[in-house]
Amino acid sequence: MKSQVSQNGVLKIASLILTAAMASWLPASAMAQTGVETAAKSGIEMHGKGQFAPSRFGKIYYETEGSGSPIFLVAGGPGSSHASFHPWFSRLAAEHTVVYLDNIGRGRSDRLAPQHTKEYTVERDAEDIEALRIALGYDRISLIGHSYGGMPALAYALKYPQHVSRLVLSSTMLNAHSWQQNIDSVNFTARNQFPEIWEQLMQLRARGVKSSAAEYGELYGKTELDIYWRDPDLESKLFQSSDPADGSNSDVYRSFIGEDPEWQVAGTMKRYDPRPRMQSLTVPTLVCVGRYDRVGTPKIAGEIKAALPASSSKLVVFERSGHRPWVEETDAYFNLLKDFFPIDDGGTAQKLSAQ
């Protein structure tokens, strides 16, 4: 379920070209400005110019935008940086402090030593969030975990509920079983919608080539727009960084999922399952998913909702979206988030109406 932007060689757009062209696709909140001001209001101008917070695993890179109660964004992959959140989540910066972070091993953050790669785990990623919360001096934070990022965001809320105001699990997975569902769903789409490519992939597998191999990934990547998008043309609206630091770390990906990651869950994810602890989570939680998402599918989203208390969780399906409803149904997605997040966190957690 690796990011199709960075893992499969999608062409990168130079920063100057991107800035010049940006006005045609920025979120509505950024459209009011022009030129350099547009970039400053989009979050892109600050990208790569953040700061570092200490942790026992190394330095954690982060950027902050806006003011008000904090919302931490946890990126997917596993292995991806926060870059694809720009400029979309600037919509929240008028009322909140948006905190973009790169987990250890990703983006501009430090890497674990090669002998410690088995420490790339969901639980360790959650500790990055805690280290950054402490470094920034927040008592309570809200979290948005996208794709894989929903797993450490949930793990954080389960371990540190006293420090969580609200939790959003956006197009994510639940455990090792749902990650295998994701793999099977993606392969089902590839096999049925791209049979000519699937046949070539099976020829590679017959020769002993695993899905982590570059030649497998190059072929596999030709199927991924249909997997991630309802409208594949919207792929062009994602921020394409020209900085190698924003590339996805395949070493981290394989540490989590194993050496055959598009076929079978192995690695540190193999036995991960937070469900036994989830019924006790009282943090207000929003689970959202795109109807046409073949990665974090609506079926998986329903399983996440079912594992949470009905009184403190809600499920929303975006009917015209794939894996990134914040791109395909931008207004609906951010209006939902604005209603969900309190502007001034008074320290109390109101319960959501059950769906």
UniProtKB/TrEMBL annotation:
InterPro entries the UniProt entry points to: AB_hydrolase_1, AB_hydrolase_fold, AB_hydrolase_sf, Peptidase_S33
Keywords: Hydrolase, Signal
Signal peptide: 1-32
GO terms, molecular function: hydrolase activity
Pfam families hit by this protein: Abhydrolase_1
Residues of the AB hydrolase-1 domain: 70-323
Gene3D superfamilies from the UniProt entry: alpha/beta hydrolase
Keyword Signal among UniProt keywords: yes
Similarity comment: family membership: Belongs to the peptidase S33 family.
Protein name: Alpha/beta fold hydrolase
Source organism: Paraherbaspirillum soli
